[in-house]
Amino acid sequence: MILKGSQRSGGQNLAAHLSNIHDNEHVRLHELRGFASDDLRGAFKEAEAISLGTKCRQYLYSLSMSPPESASVSEEVFERTIEKIEKRLGLEGQPRAIVFHEKEGRRHAHCVWSRIDADTMTARQISFPKIKLMEISRELYLEQGWKMPRGLANAAERNPTNFTLAEWQQAKRQNIDPRWLKQTVQDCWKRSDGARAFVSSLEQHGLFLAKGDKRSHVLVDYGGEVYSLPRTLGLKTKDVRARLGDGADLPDVAATHAKIGERMVPAMRRHIAEARKEFLGRSATLGHYKMEMTHLHRDARMKLETRHATEQETETHERAARLPKGIRGLWHRITGRYQEVRRENEREAEMMRERQARERQELIERQLAQRQVLQKQFKEMRRNQADLLLGLRRDVGRFLHLSKPQGLGLRGGLGLKL
């Protein structure tokens, strides 16, 4: 289970995010402990109000828990994990909220604690949280028998293609997967022993190498978006210059834009547009199925919750009726029979809660299994689309190579990225 936590403020924004039913197919507030309010907004407002009596600004600690994709994790496992984290981080007894989210056939959980100790009016100090969360995560993978990610087993083996939010947003504007961009450029760099080989390798994947205004080397895609080459490679500028030179003989971004306009083949544009149109059509069909499935699943859960509430009310009345009142009740207290009936009532109430929890978990697991079948179709469709676009990128690279004037050398070593 991947665990990510951070100290933060902005309780109302966090409450809105955790309650977001638009980006999540199912949202369930599992627990509110230590708050007077019965909703997230009110609870986090309480935490913020108490924090005003201290110097603490990041008065919340927010944790997300994401199990492996194929794992079926019960609420009990999530709860045990939260208790363990709470103890390790020094948040025992603090007010907290637990929320379950379901999306694309997977369930994950969020837990948010108030860091403010109301008795001492000080913030709980959380030391080395990343190290502690990683330790707990490793323990969970071992306890549950899950296959541990290499990056978790050995920090030196983490995925080298991690990217920042800014890179992600920039890539999404151009419909580019930033993982593909980083990994492709890094692979080209590893296979190349000099500037010419690097440019040639980039060209096979349709990327232009150019000279930026302030950076010696940049990448330009077919839409004109500019990327820092050192940042994409994860290297220092001096290391890039050591292999490619200072970039003085490269065309600038404006010249590269002009070259892209000359070389972009109109027929390839039509092929790409057609492929995307077909993909959107298939995606819309599956999206409709997903919407119908989500409505059916929500309806089933609402019916189950209604039935559970009715059962709880009925059985509570039945158990209350077993406790005699008046003179008979006094006699039962004297003889000890009253306490026996009360203990039996408590035992039955606990059995009812356990039974309802099992029924809720079984329904969730059935629905997750159904959703995962649909999610496999989404993944296959996206994989096929990615393969198709990859082939088109290579075709464009070949067309550009054929149309490139001979003898251009490094200055003409340009490509484009679709």
How would you characterize this protein structure?
This protein has 418 residues and is an alpha+beta fold. The chain has 2 domains: 2-157, BirA Bifunctional Protein, domain 2, CATH 3.30.930.30; 162-418, no CATH class. 59% of the residues lie in helices and 12% in strands. It has helices at 11-18, 40-51, 75-88, 129-144, 150-153, 165-173, 178-191, 195-204, 229-233, 237-244, 253-263, 266-322, 326-335, 337-403; strands at residues 2-8, 26-33, 60-66, 96-103, 106-114, 116-117, 122-123, 208-210, 218-220, 226-228. A hairpin with a 4-residue loop joins strand 6 and strand 7. Helix 12 (266-322) packs antiparallel against helix 14. It is elongated and about 105 Å long.
The major β-sheet equals: 5 strands, antiparallel
Number of E strands: 10
Ranges with pLDDT <50 over ≥5 residues? 155-165, 405-418
User: Topology as H/E string?
Assistant: EHEHEHEEEEHHHHHEEEHHHHHH
Topology at a glance:
Elements: E1 2-8, H1 11-18, E2 26-33, H2 40-51, E3 60-66, H3 75-88, E4 96-103, E5 106-114, E6 116-117, E7 122-123, H4 129-144, H5 150-153, H6 165-173, H7 178-191, H8 195-204, E8 208-210, E9 218-220, E10 226-228, H9 229-233, H10 237-244, H11 253-263, H12 266-322, H13 326-335, H14 337-403
Antiparallel strand pairs: 1-3, 2-4, 3-5, 4-5, 6-7, 8-9, 9-10
Helix pairs in contact: 1-2, 3-4, 7-8, 12-14
Concise structural overview:
The protein is 59% helix and 12% strand. By secondary structure, the chain is an alpha+beta fold. Helix 1 runs antiparallel to helix 2 (40-51) and helix 12 runs antiparallel to helix 14.
Task: Write out key terms for the chains shown.
single chain; 418 residues; alpha+beta; BirA Bifunctional Protein, domain 2; 2 domains; five-stranded antiparallel beta sheet; three-stranded antiparallel beta sheet; 14 helices; disordered C terminus
